[in-house]
Amino acid sequence: MAKNELDEALELVDAEVKKIGISRREAFKLAGLGSAAYLMGDSTKAEAATTAQASEAKGKILIIGGGLAGISTAARLASTLTDPDITVIEPNPKSVSYQPGNTLIGAGLYEKADVMYDTKDFLPAGVKMIKDKAVEFNPDANKIVIGSGETISYDFLVIAAGLTLDFGSIKGLEEVGDAYTMGDASKILKAFGNSGITSIYNTDTSVETWKQMQKFIESAKNGKKVKGIFTHPNTSIKCGGAPKKIMNLTHSRLAEAGARDNAELTFYPNGGSMFSVKEYHDAILKQFETRGFKWNYNHNLTGVDIQNKTAIFDKRWDEKGPYDEDLEEYSMITKHQEVEVPFDFMHITPPMKAPDEIGNSAVGSGKGWVPVNKETLQHVKYKNIFSLGDIAAVPMGKTGGSVRKQYKVVVDNLISAMEGKELTAKYAGYTVCPLITDIGKVMLAEFDWTKKPTPSFPLDPTQERYIWWLMKVYLLKPMTQYGMLSGKA
């Protein structure tokens, strides 16, 4: 990111916070961004907070994935090792796109160009890039094979390849198969057609989401009673709050058009709550009630009838079964019912998984994700392999905010492993979800494995705040580009 882009973002923030009578520094403090000293111009404090100790450790490091997690790790390693030997394997020239912006594209608040960047522009000096894909793993021999057929050896491996969107597991979308956030969307768009089905989990389908949302709003504005439904699948997903964010933004756009009363908006999550942290669950429930939303827990999307604009869900519930004399309790039997729901507009959050070539390999696991110690992020079997980001099998944290903590742990522990030392850096499970609740309002949900709010500043974290909207819309992108991708933030 060019420095002038950061300056422009900061000028926007200055202009906005001036309207509410506070300084940029006060705004950052309120937003819990004390660690973003570099954005305040305090370079000394920033360097002290972000620069790791130099190491003369030697070793050939191979990083699979050139997205946010991979490039941030490469940058910090390159600036920490005195003689780095780092290679990144990444097939997509646009891999470092600003993915959190897809939600804003879907609601017409960002353009596609706002999130698109060339990976080569963020490649750290001295780091080699191979434009290809890892397709085979031989961790016992410390080798991988890439798509071209070339075998590449390593001393240490970092897997940061992200995840795939498993649209093909939904009946009616089999032809789409696996997809990627930054990948070719032609199969998805062809399958969705003009049906009102959308998804913000691919950048090009996010653009189409805004088009379909406008049609939906126009129908409601013209007096038609319309139904919008929003799904959350039965797998781990990147940014667990995103399905609710796009629902909230649909509500905002309908209200803005004076058409909200004609639209029924319903959330269909696979789980039995709005959020894994009770305090945020309670807050979201109140927001849903205030906005007149409907919701149905324990509904997993299994199919779509595109022609008839009907979604098919597996609804499940538990019933009391036979009494167990030995345990002195009733067994519980899970029941299932197929439920068909008509829609005019539907946002699909697809099931997600590790890419098959990784998840089904020797470095993968039964559930597909790369199995790591959740604190050290070291592979549970291969001690010279680390993993982070969406593909890592940690209890929660498939967000950029999680990566901001994880990549520093990986770098510190990787260097310790190179030096033959004990791994002392620990990831505490921190993640952050700037949950958009309205245009101009965000609830900043911060938490860790304790499943308790862990706010960065002593403000009620369950409250929607304008200041956190400024952070989401104006600051997180430059923080990501100017800070994380340089290995500093």
What characterizes the major β-sheet? 5 strands, parallel
CATH classification class of the largest domain = Alpha Beta
Terminal Cα separation, in Å? 14 Å
Order of strands, widest sheet: 3-2-1-7-20
- Please tally the β strands and state the result: 23
Q: Would you tell me which CATH topology of the largest domain applies? A: FAD/NAD(P)-binding domain
CATH architecture label of the largest domain: 3-Layer(bba) Sandwich
Tell me the helix content. 25-40%
Structural class: alpha/beta
Count of DSSP-assigned helices = 13
Q: Superfamily at the CATH H level of the largest domain?
A: FAD/NAD(P)-binding domain
What is the average of the pLDDT values? 90
Description of the structure:
- The protein has 489 residues and is of the alpha/beta class.
- Helices cover 31% and strands 24% of the residues.
- The strands form 7 sheets. The protein has a 5-stranded parallel beta sheet, with helices on one face. A 5-stranded parallel beta sheet has the order 10-17-11-12-13, covered by helices on one side.
- β11, α9 and β12 form a beta-alpha-beta unit.
- α1 packs antiparallel against α13.
- The radius of gyration is 23 Å and the shape is globular.
